[in-house]
Structure formats: structure tokens, C-alpha cells
Amino acid sequence: xxxxxxxxxxxxxxxxxxxxxxxxxxxxxxxxxxxxxxxxxxxxxxxxxxxxxxxxxxxxxxxxxxxxxxxxxxxxxxxxxxxxxxxxxxxxxxxxxxxxxxxxxxxxxxxxxxxxxxxxxxxxxxxxxxxxxxxxxxxxxxxxxxxxxxxxxxxxxxxxxxxxxxxxxxxxxxxxxxxxxxxxxxxxxxxxxxxxxxxxxxxxxxxxxxxxxxxxxxxxxxxxxxxxxxxxxxxxxxxxxxxxxxxxxx
Length: 250
Fold this sequence. Notes:
Blueprint: E1 7-10, E2 13-16, H1 17-26, H2 30-50, H3 56-69, H4 75-84, H5 89-110, H6 114-120, E3 127-135, H7 138-149, H8 155-162, H9 166-170, E4 174-179, H10 185-192, E5 200-204, E6 209-218, H11 224-248
Antiparallel strand pairs: 1-2, 3-4, 3-6, 5-6
Helix pairs in contact: 2-5, 2-11, 3-5, 5-11
């Protein structure tokens, strides 16, 4: 039988488990936590049925990787870090086990489906290198559009000066390399139909008014990253389906 500690100690100050649950309720976070618990139960059950296991060597290798990432060069430093995270070494290993089990189960369930899925959804995996400039006012976005078109200022300089997002401003508007599927159908049609470095917009967005340029089109290829993205996507769909079945079969 699993016993549950009725309280958590935070820097020597006890916090009752009921207080944690009540706080999660008030923060509207309890549903998400319960959902994750049920996800893990589904994963554990399916992994057991399929004979998917995580070895102690795999857990140790992942623990070593995390210690290196956190620059924990001694067992003393590792224990201090775990204590600061309010977990024990056993808790840490259990978390590593669950994450590795999830990865191995996803691979077991869907690795054989990757090539077929990629062939059927090839367009989804086309990518663009996208630059974005967002300003709070429509008039300003229109003025910048004309200035860029007339070569009075470059898109990159304008983004560096005016973009409301600090990260993009420091990168002269670079939004990132994006898949077609990560965009709304309307926006995907616009940017994937554009010419390279054509100024697009202004478009009204959630934060203001956007201008875009496409720096590069990247053809769909079944890279290791794309393969993993497909497995993750199929696994998420499967997990949601299993949870929905579980909840409605009670």
C-alpha cells in the first residue's frame, strides 16, 4: 500500500497537502494535474501490457545527463539541489523513470507509422524562416510598411527599433523556423504563398499589428527531428483518446 505524507516541508515550514490541493483549485490548476495523473496511469498500464520497461542503467544515464546539465559535480551538490526542489532521490528517479517510459512507449506504439504519416501529411512539415515585426498601432505599422517598401529603412532595422517583443527586437525580428501546421490555415496560406523577403501586412494580431517577411522556405524532409515530432503528435492524440475513453466508460 502506498502511503501519502500529509504535508510538505518548505524550508522547514510545513504545508498541509490539503492546502496544496485547495490552492490548485483556486488557481484553476487541479484539473490539469489530475489529467496528468490519469495520463501516467494509462501509460503505466499500456507499457506493462506491451512489455515496455525502463532499466536501471537507462535511469542512471539520464540522471547523469541531468547532473551534468545542472553542473552538479558531486553527490553533496546533487542532494542539495534535490532538497531545494522538495524531492528525495527516490522521487527524482521515479520522475526520470516515468519520462523515459513515456518516450519508450511512444516509440513502441508509433515508430512504424512515421513514414506513412509523413507521406500523408507532407505539406504540414514544410517550414519557413519567418521574421515578424509587431507594433501597437495600425498607423505605425502602415508607416513602417511604406518605409520598408521605399527602402528608407530595412525590415530588420525597423524590427530592432520598434518591435514590442524584446526577444525579437534583439534578434531583429526573427520569429523562428516554423512548420506549416503550427500556423493558422489563413496565415499559412499568406506566408507560404509569399515571395522571399516580400513585406506582408499589416495584419491585426493578438498583441498589435504585424508585418512579416519570409527569409527562407524549407522543403519537407523526414529528419530525426521531424520523425520525433510525428511520434509525439501521434502519441498525444492516442493519449487523449485513451483518456476520453476512460472518463466516459465509468
